[in-house]
Amino acid sequence: MNVFFLALFCVCGFVAADEDERLPNKCEVCKFLTVELQDALAKTGRSKEVLEVGEVLDTGKRRRKIKYNTSETRLTEALDNICERILQYNVHAERPGSLRYAKGASQTMTTLKNLVHKGVKVDLGMPFELWDEPSVEVSDMKKQCETMLEEYEEVVEDWYFHHQEQRLENFLCESHILKTSELECLKEVWKGDMGKKGGAGEAGGDSTEEEGVNDNTKKEEQKTHDGGEL
After folding, report:
1. Per-residue pLDDT, 55
2. Span 5-16, average pLDDT
3. Cα–Cα distance list, 140 to 18, 83, 92, 118 (Å)
4. Helix, strand or coil, per DSSP, at residue 218
5. What is the dihedral of CA 191, 192, 195, 196, to 10 degrees?
6. What is the pLDDT of residue 109?
7. pLDDT at position 67 over 70
8. What is the dihedral of CA 170, 173, 176, 178, to 10 degrees?
9. In whole angstroms, what is the distance from residue 7 CA to residue 11 CA?
10. CB 6 within 8 A of CB 126
């Protein structure tokens, strides 16, 4: 029992210390800013709505009609509180580099919550009700996102109106914000739990768990099949 609590103490200490010592870098901030903005725009990209702009004058001149999906209104709505979406991320301390930031509960936190539900006392230095509050890292990323967006808003507008054939990540991060030596995180792609590290995927942990169950089922079926042939 003492060994168990010692191991648990080490895990909790690792989580707290890791979050205190690690803050998002410029590459990571730009990466997730573009991820969220592209996602927000993708949700309205197929809209067939038509907007009427301008004033109706006494001369009877008609208001100009423009498509919503190419309008400034669409961009403005997508940018509204875009950095607030960063607060939906959690720190997955078991993952490397920028992959540590993802939506959904981390493997470590899921394990600790399961222990609490089983009646084990776990002390992270904060009430259980606050475990799901944005971490210091995520809150810092949100602040950096706001500063970055304010500084490069004209670049984002230029991309939206003239360069959407390019990925926003490439246009904004690679071409305007980051130095060549700062691009490493843009190459990092989450490939799911490969059985070594990692918890829930960005879309949630259920899919990863289901894959594991399916793999085990296939193995059992193979054993049965092999046994039948003998």
Report:
1. 56
2. 45
3. 14, 11, 16, 33
4. helix
5. 70
6. 77
7. yes
8. -130
9. 6
10. no
Q: In whole angstroms, what separates CA 220 from the centre of its chain? A: 35
CB 160 within 8 A of CB 152: no
Which two tokens mark 37? 């903005």
Count CB atoms within 10 A of the CB of residue 91: 23
CB atoms closer than 10 angstroms to residue 102: 23
Does residue 198 carry a pLDDT above 70? Answer: no
DSSP-derived letter for residue 121 is: -
pLDDT in the model for residue 70: 82
Q: Tokens in use for 118?
A: 């089983």
- pLDDT surpasses 80 at 45: no
Which residue reads 């706001």 in tokens? 146
- Please identify which residue in the block is written with the tokens 């800013």: 33
In the predicted structure, residue 186 carries a pLDDT above the cut 50: yes
From CA 119, how far away is CA 135, in angstroms rounded?
Answer: 25
Amino acid 95 reads: R
